[in-house]
Write a structure and sequence with these properties.
With 230 residues, the protein is of the alpha/beta class. It contains five helices and nine strands, in the order ββββαβαβααβαββ. It has helices at residues 60-67, 95-110, 123-130, 134-142, 177-184; strands spanning 4-8, 14-19, 42-44, 47-53, 73-78, 113-118, 149-151, 223-224, 227-228.
Length: 230
């Protein structure tokens, strides 16, 4: 099982399927590590869209991989709560502020709009997760909620921050605004030193075995036993 994010077009087409590269902390109890196949930026009618899940938005190399593909709109998804530490016995982790900092940092560095989409834990969902355990319910109620927002390429908020109820955040964006900011710092363009730095990304999904003699069906299969093939 993978913690996954899918991008669907306005025509109902599956544009990208990204699996979270590393499950965070106790997520390892449910999910396994993903792969690089979904580290893609996709051209759409509204701009070039890339996506990362939750803590991946901390990963400089994952974020740079999307920057290098001229990402214009970044989507980041988060769970409704995150019990970073037991909030009943210590100061709770400020999840909302951590998300805001991550979103602003990526937008400012990538010169992209970031759309943060967070789940919301309503009373019915809370009851299902707590499953009658009073301590679990108390912990969940004490945990800070995550939040949704939209951030501009200058790192400023372009919408309200929503964390206290289920609903929408919205704003109008113009990807042409990105150009001005990239004239100052284009981290994957003129402001990069590609003669000094080099990043290699493996996009092939891992397979349990590779067999000689098979017909190669895609460029992702263009290696068998570590040997390149034409």
């Amino acid at each position: 099982m993978w913690n996954s994010n899918v991008l669907i077009s306005d025509r109902g087409e599956l544009l990208n399927h990204h699996r979270k590269l590393v499950p965070t902390f106790y997520e390892k109890l449910s999910w396994t590590s993903g792969d690089g196949a979904g580290l893609k930026v996709v051209s759409t009618s509204i701009g070039r869209i890339g996506s990362l899940i939750c803590g991946e938005n901390n990963n400089p190399l994952s974020r740079y991989t999307l920057m290098a593909q001229s990402e214009q709109i970044h989507t980041s998804s988060y769970p409704p709560v995150w019990p970073f530490r037991n909030p009943l016995g210590a100061k709770p982790y400020d999840l909302s502020d951590a998300i805001r900092v991550r979103a602003a940092a990526h937008s400012f560095e990538a010169k992209a709009f970031t759309i943060v989409s967070a789940g919301f834990l309503d009373e019915e969902s809370l009851a299902v997760i707590a499953s009658g355990n009073a301590e679990s319910e108390a912990i969940l109620r004490a945990c800070p909620r995550s939040c949704s927002m939209i951030v501009g390429p200058d790192g400023t908020l372009r919408s309200d921050i929503r964390s206290d109820a289920e609903g929408f955040v919205h704003t109008e964006i113009d990807v042409a605004e990105i150009l001005e900011h990239k004239q100052h710092h284009d981290m994957a363009g003129y402001y990069n030193r590609m003669d000094i730095y080099s990043l290699h990304v493996q996009r092939a999904r891992p397979q349990p075995a590779y067999f000689r003699g098979d017909i190669l069906e895609s460029e992702n299969d263009a290696f068998i036993d570590g040997e390149g093939m034409d």
